[in-house]
Specification:
heterodimer, A: two-stranded antiparallel sheet, two-stranded antiparallel ribbon, 15 helices, B: five-stranded antiparallel β-sheet
Chain lengths: 385, 157
Protein backbone atom coordinates (compact mmCIF):
# COMPACT_ATOMS: atom_id res chain seq x y z
CA UNK A 1 0.00 0.00 0.00
CA UNK A 2 2.81 2.32 1.05
CA UNK A 3 4.76 1.40 -2.11
CA UNK A 4 1.69 2.04 -4.29
CA UNK A 5 1.16 5.40 -2.67
CA UNK A 6 4.79 6.36 -3.13
CA UNK A 7 4.65 5.49 -6.86
CA UNK A 8 1.48 7.58 -7.24
CA UNK A 9 3.08 10.38 -5.30
CA UNK A 10 6.21 10.16 -7.43
CA UNK A 11 4.15 10.27 -10.63
CA UNK A 12 2.09 13.23 -9.46
CA UNK A 13 5.28 14.99 -8.33
CA UNK A 14 6.86 14.34 -11.75
CA UNK A 15 3.79 15.70 -13.52
CA UNK A 16 3.63 18.69 -11.19
CA UNK A 17 7.30 19.45 -11.81
CA UNK A 18 6.89 19.23 -15.59
CA UNK A 19 3.30 20.41 -15.90
CA UNK A 20 4.12 23.44 -18.03
CA UNK A 21 6.14 21.65 -20.75
CA UNK A 22 3.58 18.83 -20.83
CA UNK A 23 0.71 21.31 -21.30
CA UNK A 24 2.63 23.06 -24.06
CA UNK A 25 3.50 19.84 -25.84
CA UNK A 26 -0.19 18.94 -25.91
CA UNK A 27 -1.25 22.40 -27.11
CA UNK A 28 1.44 22.40 -29.82
CA UNK A 29 0.52 18.89 -30.91
CA UNK A 30 -3.04 20.12 -31.47
CA UNK A 31 -2.09 23.44 -33.06
CA UNK A 32 0.48 22.18 -35.59
CA UNK A 33 -1.97 20.23 -37.79
CA UNK A 34 -4.52 23.05 -37.44
CA UNK A 35 -2.01 25.63 -38.68
CA UNK A 36 -1.36 23.69 -41.89
CA UNK A 37 2.31 24.72 -42.01
CA UNK A 38 4.78 22.42 -43.71
CA UNK A 39 7.53 20.70 -41.73
CA UNK A 40 10.19 22.61 -43.69
CA UNK A 41 8.66 25.95 -42.77
CA UNK A 42 8.32 25.04 -39.10
CA UNK A 43 11.88 23.73 -38.86
CA UNK A 44 13.32 26.76 -40.68
CA UNK A 45 11.42 29.19 -38.46
CA UNK A 46 12.42 27.32 -35.32
CA UNK A 47 16.09 27.28 -36.34
CA UNK A 48 16.01 31.06 -36.83
CA UNK A 49 14.14 31.74 -33.60
CA UNK A 50 16.26 29.41 -31.46
CA UNK A 51 19.37 31.17 -32.75
CA UNK A 52 17.81 34.57 -32.16
CA UNK A 53 16.53 34.06 -28.61
CA UNK A 54 18.65 31.42 -26.90
CA UNK A 55 21.43 33.77 -25.83
CA UNK A 56 18.98 36.08 -24.06
CA UNK A 57 17.36 33.18 -22.23
CA UNK A 58 20.70 31.63 -21.25
CA UNK A 59 21.59 34.89 -19.51
CA UNK A 60 18.88 34.11 -16.93
CA UNK A 61 20.63 30.98 -15.65
CA UNK A 62 23.33 32.63 -13.52
CA UNK A 63 20.99 34.54 -11.13
CA UNK A 64 18.84 31.40 -10.72
CA UNK A 65 22.03 29.54 -9.77
CA UNK A 66 22.65 32.18 -7.09
CA UNK A 67 19.12 31.79 -5.73
CA UNK A 68 17.96 35.18 -6.98
CA UNK A 69 15.08 33.84 -9.03
CA UNK A 70 14.15 35.02 -12.49
CA UNK A 71 16.06 38.17 -13.35
CA UNK A 72 13.37 40.52 -14.63
CA UNK A 73 16.12 43.14 -14.56
CA UNK A 74 17.67 41.62 -17.66
CA UNK A 75 16.00 44.40 -19.65
CA UNK A 76 18.69 46.66 -18.18
CA UNK A 77 21.23 44.69 -20.19
CA UNK A 78 18.96 44.83 -23.22
CA UNK A 79 18.90 48.64 -22.96
CA UNK A 80 22.70 48.70 -22.73
CA UNK A 81 22.92 46.64 -25.92
CA UNK A 82 20.54 49.03 -27.66
CA UNK A 83 22.65 52.03 -26.64
CA UNK A 84 25.63 50.28 -28.23
CA UNK A 85 23.62 49.71 -31.40
CA UNK A 86 22.55 53.37 -31.56
CA UNK A 87 26.20 54.47 -31.51
CA UNK A 88 27.24 51.85 -34.04
CA UNK A 89 24.43 52.98 -36.34
CA UNK A 90 25.49 56.61 -35.94
CA UNK A 91 29.12 55.83 -36.75
CA UNK A 92 28.04 53.58 -39.68
CA UNK A 93 30.01 50.56 -38.49
CA UNK A 94 28.69 47.56 -40.39
CA UNK A 95 29.14 43.81 -40.42
CA UNK A 96 30.72 41.75 -37.67
CA UNK A 97 32.87 44.71 -36.47
CA UNK A 98 29.60 46.58 -35.90
CA UNK A 99 28.15 43.81 -33.74
CA UNK A 100 31.34 43.39 -31.69
CA UNK A 101 31.71 47.15 -31.24
CA UNK A 102 28.07 47.45 -30.10
CA UNK A 103 28.77 44.74 -27.52
CA UNK A 104 31.94 46.52 -26.35
CA UNK A 105 30.11 49.85 -26.03
CA UNK A 106 27.21 48.19 -24.23
CA UNK A 107 29.44 46.32 -21.76
CA UNK A 108 30.37 49.20 -19.40
CA UNK A 109 26.76 50.41 -19.42
CA UNK A 110 25.56 46.88 -18.62
CA UNK A 111 28.16 46.51 -15.84
CA UNK A 112 27.09 49.82 -14.27
CA UNK A 113 23.41 48.89 -14.47
CA UNK A 114 24.17 45.39 -13.17
CA UNK A 115 26.01 46.84 -10.17
CA UNK A 116 23.07 49.11 -9.45
CA UNK A 117 20.59 46.26 -9.81
CA UNK A 118 22.68 43.86 -7.70
CA UNK A 119 23.06 46.35 -4.86
CA UNK A 120 19.35 47.15 -4.88
CA UNK A 121 18.47 43.44 -4.85
CA UNK A 122 20.80 42.88 -1.89
CA UNK A 123 18.58 45.27 0.03
CA UNK A 124 15.47 43.33 -0.99
CA UNK A 125 16.46 39.75 -0.26
CA UNK A 126 13.55 37.39 -0.76
CA UNK A 127 11.74 39.81 -3.09
CA UNK A 128 14.30 39.86 -5.88
CA UNK A 129 11.91 39.17 -8.74
CA UNK A 130 9.38 41.90 -8.04
CA UNK A 131 12.17 44.33 -7.13
CA UNK A 132 14.04 43.70 -10.38
CA UNK A 133 10.76 44.00 -12.29
CA UNK A 134 10.05 47.44 -10.83
CA UNK A 135 13.70 48.45 -11.21
CA UNK A 136 13.31 47.67 -14.90
CA UNK A 137 10.52 50.25 -15.13
CA UNK A 138 12.65 52.83 -13.31
CA UNK A 139 15.70 52.32 -15.52
CA UNK A 140 13.39 52.34 -18.56
CA UNK A 141 12.47 55.89 -17.58
CA UNK A 142 16.13 56.86 -17.30
CA UNK A 143 16.85 55.18 -20.65
CA UNK A 144 14.06 57.16 -22.30
CA UNK A 145 15.36 60.38 -20.76
CA UNK A 146 18.85 59.68 -22.12
CA UNK A 147 17.74 58.50 -25.56
CA UNK A 148 14.90 60.97 -26.06
CA UNK A 149 16.50 64.13 -24.65
CA UNK A 150 20.24 63.71 -24.13
CA UNK A 151 21.20 61.99 -27.37
CA UNK A 152 21.79 64.58 -30.05
CA UNK A 153 22.07 67.29 -27.39
CA UNK A 154 24.53 66.28 -24.64
CA UNK A 155 25.59 63.06 -26.35
CA UNK A 156 26.70 63.78 -29.92
CA UNK A 157 24.71 61.90 -32.56
CA UNK A 158 25.60 63.16 -36.02
CA UNK A 159 23.48 61.05 -38.34
CA UNK A 160 20.27 62.87 -39.36
CA UNK A 161 18.64 59.52 -40.07
CA UNK A 162 18.81 58.75 -36.33
CA UNK A 163 17.99 62.09 -34.75
CA UNK A 164 14.45 63.45 -34.57
CA UNK A 165 13.66 66.44 -36.76
CA UNK A 166 13.71 68.76 -33.70
CA UNK A 167 17.48 68.19 -33.43
CA UNK A 168 17.75 65.92 -30.41
CA UNK A 169 16.36 62.56 -29.39
CA UNK A 170 16.47 59.29 -31.30
CA UNK A 171 13.77 58.24 -33.74
CA UNK A 172 11.27 55.50 -32.90
CA UNK A 173 12.73 53.00 -35.33
CA UNK A 174 16.33 52.58 -36.45
CA UNK A 175 17.27 50.47 -39.42
CA UNK A 176 20.08 48.05 -38.67
CA UNK A 177 20.57 47.19 -42.31
CA UNK A 178 24.37 47.30 -41.99
CA UNK A 179 24.46 44.52 -39.41
CA UNK A 180 21.27 42.69 -40.32
CA UNK A 181 21.78 38.89 -40.07
CA UNK A 182 25.55 39.26 -40.50
CA UNK A 183 26.20 36.77 -37.73
CA UNK A 184 23.61 34.39 -39.15
CA UNK A 185 25.14 34.66 -42.62
CA UNK A 186 28.76 34.40 -41.45
CA UNK A 187 28.83 30.61 -41.77
CA UNK A 188 25.77 29.62 -43.77
CA UNK A 189 24.89 25.96 -44.09
CA UNK A 190 22.20 24.61 -46.37
CA UNK A 191 20.84 21.19 -45.53
CA UNK A 192 18.46 19.10 -47.61
CA UNK A 193 16.30 18.23 -49.40
CA UNK A 194 15.49 14.98 -47.61
CA UNK A 195 12.99 12.26 -48.38
CA UNK A 196 12.41 9.75 -45.61
CA UNK A 197 9.42 7.62 -46.60
CA UNK A 198 6.45 9.93 -47.01
CA UNK A 199 8.20 12.69 -45.06
CA UNK A 200 9.71 15.39 -47.31
CA UNK A 201 11.96 18.18 -46.13
CA UNK A 202 13.12 20.97 -48.43
CA UNK A 203 16.33 22.97 -48.14
CA UNK A 204 16.84 24.42 -44.66
CA UNK A 205 19.36 27.18 -43.85
CA UNK A 206 21.22 26.84 -40.58
CA UNK A 207 22.92 29.93 -39.06
CA UNK A 208 26.02 28.03 -37.93
CA UNK A 209 27.95 31.02 -36.51
CA UNK A 210 25.06 31.99 -34.23
CA UNK A 211 24.83 28.43 -32.96
CA UNK A 212 28.59 28.35 -32.35
CA UNK A 213 28.24 31.49 -30.19
CA UNK A 214 25.34 29.88 -28.29
CA UNK A 215 27.30 26.64 -27.85
CA UNK A 216 30.26 28.63 -26.51
CA UNK A 217 27.92 30.26 -24.02
CA UNK A 218 26.59 26.86 -22.95
CA UNK A 219 30.16 25.63 -22.38
CA UNK A 220 30.82 28.80 -20.40
CA UNK A 221 27.81 28.04 -18.16
CA UNK A 222 28.97 24.44 -17.62
CA UNK A 223 32.53 25.60 -16.87
CA UNK A 224 31.34 28.45 -14.68
CA UNK A 225 29.33 26.11 -12.45
CA UNK A 226 32.54 24.25 -11.60
CA UNK A 227 34.56 27.32 -10.74
CA UNK A 228 34.93 28.62 -7.17
CA UNK A 229 32.57 31.50 -7.96
CA UNK A 230 30.02 29.12 -9.48
CA UNK A 231 30.17 26.83 -6.45
CA UNK A 232 29.75 29.85 -4.17
CA UNK A 233 26.67 30.89 -6.14
CA UNK A 234 25.17 27.42 -5.86
CA UNK A 235 25.86 27.38 -2.12
CA UNK A 236 24.16 30.77 -1.75
CA UNK A 237 21.27 29.53 -3.87
CA UNK A 238 20.76 26.54 -1.56
CA UNK A 239 21.03 28.38 1.73
CA UNK A 240 22.18 31.95 2.13
CA UNK A 241 22.68 31.76 5.90
CA UNK A 242 24.81 28.62 5.70
CA UNK A 243 26.85 30.10 2.84
CA UNK A 244 27.42 33.24 4.91
CA UNK A 245 28.51 31.14 7.89
CA UNK A 246 30.90 29.26 5.61
CA UNK A 247 32.64 32.54 4.81
CA UNK A 248 31.25 33.10 1.33
CA UNK A 249 30.80 36.83 0.59
CA UNK A 250 27.08 36.55 -0.09
CA UNK A 251 26.30 40.11 -1.13
CA UNK A 252 29.33 40.42 -3.39
CA UNK A 253 28.62 37.08 -5.08
CA UNK A 254 24.99 38.03 -5.67
CA UNK A 255 26.05 41.33 -7.24
CA UNK A 256 28.49 39.46 -9.51
CA UNK A 257 25.69 37.09 -10.57
CA UNK A 258 23.48 40.00 -11.58
CA UNK A 259 26.33 41.81 -13.36
CA UNK A 260 27.14 38.67 -15.39
CA UNK A 261 23.47 38.22 -16.26
CA UNK A 262 23.08 41.87 -17.29
CA UNK A 263 26.19 41.85 -19.48
CA UNK A 264 25.11 38.61 -21.16
CA UNK A 265 21.62 40.03 -21.69
CA UNK A 266 23.29 43.00 -23.41
CA UNK A 267 25.08 40.64 -25.81
CA UNK A 268 21.89 38.62 -26.24
CA UNK A 269 19.93 41.72 -27.22
CA UNK A 270 22.57 42.66 -29.81
CA UNK A 271 22.35 39.15 -31.30
CA UNK A 272 18.55 39.34 -31.19
CA UNK A 273 18.40 42.72 -32.94
CA UNK A 274 20.98 41.85 -35.59
CA UNK A 275 18.62 39.07 -36.60
CA UNK A 276 15.55 41.33 -36.55
CA UNK A 277 17.26 44.09 -38.54
CA UNK A 278 15.31 46.90 -36.88
CA UNK A 279 15.76 48.55 -33.54
CA UNK A 280 12.51 49.77 -32.03
CA UNK A 281 14.23 52.32 -29.79
CA UNK A 282 11.56 52.67 -27.12
CA UNK A 283 9.94 49.21 -27.23
CA UNK A 284 12.47 46.54 -28.24
CA UNK A 285 13.75 45.91 -24.71
CA UNK A 286 10.30 45.94 -23.09
CA UNK A 287 9.37 42.41 -24.04
CA UNK A 288 12.86 40.91 -23.90
CA UNK A 289 12.62 39.99 -20.22
CA UNK A 290 9.04 38.80 -20.27
CA UNK A 291 9.38 36.57 -23.33
CA UNK A 292 12.72 35.13 -22.19
CA UNK A 293 11.37 34.28 -18.76
CA UNK A 294 8.21 32.79 -20.25
CA UNK A 295 10.29 30.62 -22.60
CA UNK A 296 12.51 29.43 -19.74
CA UNK A 297 9.50 28.53 -17.59
CA UNK A 298 7.83 26.72 -20.46
CA UNK A 299 11.00 24.65 -20.75
CA UNK A 300 10.30 23.25 -17.29
CA UNK A 301 12.49 25.57 -15.26
CA UNK A 302 11.33 26.99 -11.99
CA UNK A 303 12.23 30.03 -9.95
CA UNK A 304 14.92 28.07 -8.14
CA UNK A 305 16.02 25.49 -10.68
CA UNK A 306 16.98 25.90 -14.34
CA UNK A 307 19.38 24.25 -16.72
CA UNK A 308 20.56 24.50 -20.30
CA UNK A 309 18.07 21.80 -21.32
CA UNK A 310 15.19 23.94 -20.02
CA UNK A 311 16.39 26.82 -22.19
CA UNK A 312 16.31 24.90 -25.45
CA UNK A 313 13.13 22.96 -24.70
CA UNK A 314 11.48 26.23 -23.69
CA UNK A 315 12.57 28.23 -26.68
CA UNK A 316 11.42 25.48 -29.06
CA UNK A 317 8.01 25.05 -27.42
CA UNK A 318 7.38 28.76 -26.89
CA UNK A 319 8.30 29.73 -30.41
CA UNK A 320 6.48 26.80 -31.90
CA UNK A 321 3.44 28.36 -30.26
CA UNK A 322 4.40 31.76 -31.70
CA UNK A 323 4.57 30.33 -35.20
CA UNK A 324 1.50 28.13 -35.24
CA UNK A 325 -0.95 29.97 -32.94
CA UNK A 326 -2.03 32.77 -35.33
CA UNK A 327 -2.59 30.44 -38.26
CA UNK A 328 -4.27 27.81 -36.07
CA UNK A 329 -6.55 30.55 -34.73
CA UNK A 330 -7.34 31.67 -38.25
CA UNK A 331 -8.12 28.17 -39.47
CA UNK A 332 -10.14 27.35 -36.36
CA UNK A 333 -12.02 30.60 -35.75
CA UNK A 334 -11.59 32.42 -39.05
CA UNK A 335 -9.45 35.15 -37.45
CA UNK A 336 -5.68 35.16 -37.00
CA UNK A 337 -6.09 37.73 -34.23
CA UNK A 338 -7.72 35.08 -32.02
CA UNK A 339 -4.55 32.99 -32.21
CA UNK A 340 -2.50 36.09 -31.56
CA UNK A 341 -4.53 36.89 -28.44
CA UNK A 342 -4.16 33.29 -27.35
CA UNK A 343 -0.39 33.52 -27.82
CA UNK A 344 -0.10 36.70 -25.74
CA UNK A 345 -2.41 35.26 -23.09
CA UNK A 346 -0.31 32.12 -22.96
CA UNK A 347 3.01 33.94 -22.71
CA UNK A 348 1.90 36.00 -19.71
CA UNK A 349 -0.31 33.34 -18.21
CA UNK A 350 2.44 30.77 -18.23
CA UNK A 351 4.55 32.96 -15.94
CA UNK A 352 1.67 33.12 -13.47
CA UNK A 353 1.12 29.35 -13.74
CA UNK A 354 4.81 28.65 -13.17
CA UNK A 355 4.97 30.97 -10.17
CA UNK A 356 1.83 29.42 -8.67
CA UNK A 357 3.22 25.92 -9.25
CA UNK A 358 6.47 26.97 -7.64
CA UNK A 359 4.65 28.33 -4.60
CA UNK A 360 2.53 25.18 -4.43
CA UNK A 361 5.60 22.92 -4.64
CA UNK A 362 7.34 24.87 -1.92
CA UNK A 363 4.26 24.63 0.24
CA UNK A 364 4.09 20.86 -0.32
CA UNK A 365 7.78 20.51 0.48
CA UNK A 366 7.27 22.37 3.74
CA UNK A 367 4.28 20.20 4.62
CA UNK A 368 6.31 17.05 3.83
CA UNK A 369 9.21 18.32 5.89
CA UNK A 370 6.92 18.99 8.86
CA UNK A 371 5.30 15.59 8.44
CA UNK A 372 8.68 13.84 8.36
CA UNK A 373 9.67 15.65 11.57
CA UNK A 374 6.58 14.30 13.33
CA UNK A 375 7.56 10.77 12.39
CA UNK A 376 5.48 7.63 12.88
CA UNK A 377 4.45 8.68 16.42
CA UNK A 378 2.03 11.16 14.92
CA UNK A 379 0.23 8.47 12.92
CA UNK A 380 0.11 6.16 15.93
CA UNK A 381 -1.31 8.93 18.07
CA UNK A 382 -4.02 9.50 15.46
CA UNK A 383 -4.85 5.78 15.40
CA UNK A 384 -5.03 5.73 19.17
CA UNK A 385 -7.32 8.74 19.18
CA UNK B 1 49.68 44.68 -9.89
CA UNK B 2 45.95 44.19 -10.32
CA UNK B 3 45.51 47.83 -11.34
CA UNK B 4 48.24 47.36 -13.94
CA UNK B 5 46.55 44.24 -15.33
CA UNK B 6 43.23 46.05 -15.52
CA UNK B 7 44.85 49.00 -17.28
CA UNK B 8 46.44 46.69 -19.85
CA UNK B 9 43.11 44.94 -20.49
CA UNK B 10 41.35 48.31 -20.79
CA UNK B 11 43.97 49.52 -23.29
CA UNK B 12 43.59 46.32 -25.31
CA UNK B 13 39.80 46.73 -25.41
CA UNK B 14 40.18 50.35 -26.48
CA UNK B 15 42.64 49.35 -29.19
CA UNK B 16 40.24 46.62 -30.36
CA UNK B 17 37.39 49.14 -30.46
CA UNK B 18 39.43 51.59 -32.54
CA UNK B 19 40.44 48.74 -34.86
CA UNK B 20 36.82 47.65 -35.28
CA UNK B 21 35.81 51.26 -35.97
CA UNK B 22 38.52 51.52 -38.62
CA UNK B 23 37.83 48.27 -40.46
CA UNK B 24 34.06 48.26 -40.06
CA UNK B 25 33.22 51.81 -41.07
CA UNK B 26 30.94 52.26 -44.04
CA UNK B 27 31.70 55.24 -46.24
CA UNK B 28 29.33 56.96 -48.63
CA UNK B 29 31.19 57.91 -51.78
CA UNK B 30 29.33 60.52 -53.80
CA UNK B 31 30.26 60.39 -57.48
CA UNK B 32 29.66 63.81 -58.96
CA UNK B 33 29.65 64.61 -62.67
CA UNK B 34 28.76 68.28 -62.65
CA UNK B 35 30.61 71.18 -64.17
CA UNK B 36 32.84 72.70 -61.53
CA UNK B 37 34.89 75.87 -61.26
CA UNK B 38 38.23 75.70 -59.48
CA UNK B 39 40.82 78.50 -59.38
CA UNK B 40 38.82 80.45 -61.93
CA UNK B 41 38.96 77.56 -64.35
CA UNK B 42 35.85 75.68 -65.46
CA UNK B 43 35.88 71.88 -65.78
CA UNK B 44 32.95 70.68 -67.82
CA UNK B 45 30.87 67.63 -66.92
CA UNK B 46 31.95 64.49 -68.76
CA UNK B 47 29.70 63.27 -71.57
CA UNK B 48 29.52 59.71 -70.32
CA UNK B 49 31.47 57.97 -67.60
CA UNK B 50 31.53 54.44 -66.17
CA UNK B 51 32.74 54.03 -62.60
CA UNK B 52 33.61 50.81 -60.79
CA UNK B 53 34.20 50.98 -57.05
CA UNK B 54 36.18 47.98 -55.86
CA UNK B 55 36.02 47.27 -52.13
CA UNK B 56 37.56 44.58 -49.96
CA UNK B 57 34.37 42.57 -50.36
CA UNK B 58 34.63 42.54 -54.16
CA UNK B 59 33.46 44.56 -57.13
CA UNK B 60 30.43 46.77 -56.81
CA UNK B 61 28.13 47.17 -59.82
CA UNK B 62 29.35 49.63 -62.41
CA UNK B 63 27.80 53.08 -62.12
CA UNK B 64 27.14 55.11 -65.26
CA UNK B 65 26.91 58.88 -65.10
CA UNK B 66 25.66 61.38 -67.64
CA UNK B 67 26.37 65.13 -67.42
CA UNK B 68 24.97 66.73 -64.22
CA UNK B 69 24.45 63.30 -62.62
CA UNK B 70 25.40 62.45 -59.09
CA UNK B 71 25.30 58.93 -57.65
CA UNK B 72 26.24 57.19 -54.46
CA UNK B 73 28.37 54.13 -53.74
CA UNK B 74 28.72 52.61 -50.30
CA UNK B 75 32.06 51.06 -49.38
CA UNK B 76 33.12 49.33 -46.21
CA UNK B 77 36.63 49.31 -44.85
CA UNK B 78 39.51 51.75 -44.63
CA UNK B 79 40.39 51.76 -48.34
CA UNK B 80 38.92 51.10 -51.75
CA UNK B 81 39.85 51.35 -55.41
CA UNK B 82 38.00 53.31 -58.01
CA UNK B 83 38.19 52.79 -61.77
CA UNK B 84 36.82 55.58 -63.95
CA UNK B 85 36.30 54.99 -67.66
CA UNK B 86 35.67 58.21 -69.58
CA UNK B 87 33.63 57.30 -72.67
CA UNK B 88 32.65 59.15 -75.76
CA UNK B 89 29.14 60.60 -75.94
CA UNK B 90 27.72 57.38 -77.45
CA UNK B 91 29.22 55.23 -74.71
CA UNK B 92 31.11 53.03 -77.16
CA UNK B 93 34.72 54.14 -77.11
CA UNK B 94 36.83 54.42 -73.96
CA UNK B 95 38.74 57.68 -74.15
CA UNK B 96 40.54 57.49 -70.85
CA UNK B 97 40.87 55.12 -67.88
CA UNK B 98 41.80 56.38 -64.44
CA UNK B 99 42.43 54.12 -61.46
CA UNK B 100 42.89 55.44 -57.95
CA UNK B 101 43.42 53.92 -54.51
CA UNK B 102 41.60 55.91 -51.88
CA UNK B 103 41.83 55.66 -48.10
CA UNK B 104 39.01 57.47 -46.32
CA UNK B 105 40.25 55.98 -43.03
CA UNK B 106 38.26 57.33 -40.11
CA UNK B 107 36.30 59.92 -42.14
CA UNK B 108 32.75 59.03 -43.03
CA UNK B 109 31.73 60.39 -46.42
CA UNK B 110 33.50 61.90 -49.39
CA UNK B 111 32.60 63.23 -52.80
CA UNK B 112 34.64 62.68 -55.94
CA UNK B 113 34.43 65.13 -58.81
CA UNK B 114 34.64 63.27 -62.11
CA UNK B 115 35.63 66.32 -64.23
CA UNK B 116 38.53 67.08 -61.85
CA UNK B 117 39.55 63.43 -61.79
CA UNK B 118 39.53 63.27 -65.57
CA UNK B 119 41.65 66.45 -65.66
CA UNK B 120 44.30 64.68 -63.51
CA UNK B 121 43.98 67.21 -60.73
CA UNK B 122 44.80 66.29 -57.14
CA UNK B 123 41.91 68.23 -55.59
CA UNK B 124 39.21 65.91 -56.96
CA UNK B 125 38.01 65.01 -53.45
CA UNK B 126 35.28 67.46 -52.42
CA UNK B 127 33.44 67.86 -49.12
CA UNK B 128 30.34 65.64 -49.08
CA UNK B 129 26.91 67.21 -49.43
CA UNK B 130 24.70 67.28 -46.33
CA UNK B 131 22.95 63.95 -46.05
CA UNK B 132 19.23 64.34 -46.08
CA UNK B 133 17.28 62.45 -43.45
CA UNK B 134 14.76 60.00 -44.89
CA UNK B 135 11.25 61.32 -44.47
CA UNK B 136 8.68 58.94 -43.13
CA UNK B 137 5.81 58.82 -40.71
CA UNK B 138 8.21 57.74 -38.01
CA UNK B 139 10.13 61.01 -38.27
CA UNK B 140 7.71 62.77 -36.01
CA UNK B 141 8.57 63.15 -32.40
CA UNK B 142 7.04 60.33 -30.35
CA UNK B 143 4.27 61.59 -28.14
CA UNK B 144 3.65 60.46 -24.59
CA UNK B 145 1.06 58.02 -25.89
CA UNK B 146 3.50 56.61 -28.42
CA UNK B 147 6.00 55.88 -25.68
CA UNK B 148 3.56 54.53 -23.15
CA UNK B 149 1.39 52.52 -25.49
CA UNK B 150 3.16 51.25 -28.58
CA UNK B 151 0.95 51.94 -31.56
CA UNK B 152 2.52 49.22 -33.64
CA UNK B 153 2.26 45.53 -32.79
CA UNK B 154 4.81 44.15 -30.37
CA UNK B 155 7.69 42.71 -32.40
CA UNK B 156 7.63 39.00 -32.67
CA UNK B 157 10.59 37.68 -30.70
Amino acid sequence: MMQKRSITQKLSRLLANNAVPVIFIFISAGAIPLSGFSATYLIQELLIRVGRNSFLILSLLVPIMAGMGLNFGMILGAMAGQIGLVFVSDWAIVGIPGIVLAMIIGTPVAVALGLLCGNVLNRAKGQEMVTSYILGFFINGVYQLVVLYFMGWLIPIASPSLVLSRGYGIRNAISLLGIRTVLDRLLPLRVGPFDVGSFHLDVVNIPVATYIVIAAFCFFIVWFRRTKLGQDMRAIGQNMAVADSAGIPVNRTRVIAIVISTVLACYGQVIFLQNMGTLNTYNSHDQAGMFSIAALLIGGASVSRAGIGNVFLGVVLFHLMFIVAPMAGKNLMGQAQIGEYFRVFVSYGIIAVALVLHAWNRHNERVDARRSLRGPTDAKAKEAA
Amino acid sequence: MRALQRSVVLCLILALSVGLFYIGREHQVFLDNKTIEVDGQSFRALKFVKITVRTQAGDAPTIELMPRDRDLAKVTGPSFQIKVEVMDEFGEKVEKVIEKDLTPGFSKDLMLSMPLLAADRDDYILPPPAVQAPSSERDTEPSEETLALPTEPVPDP
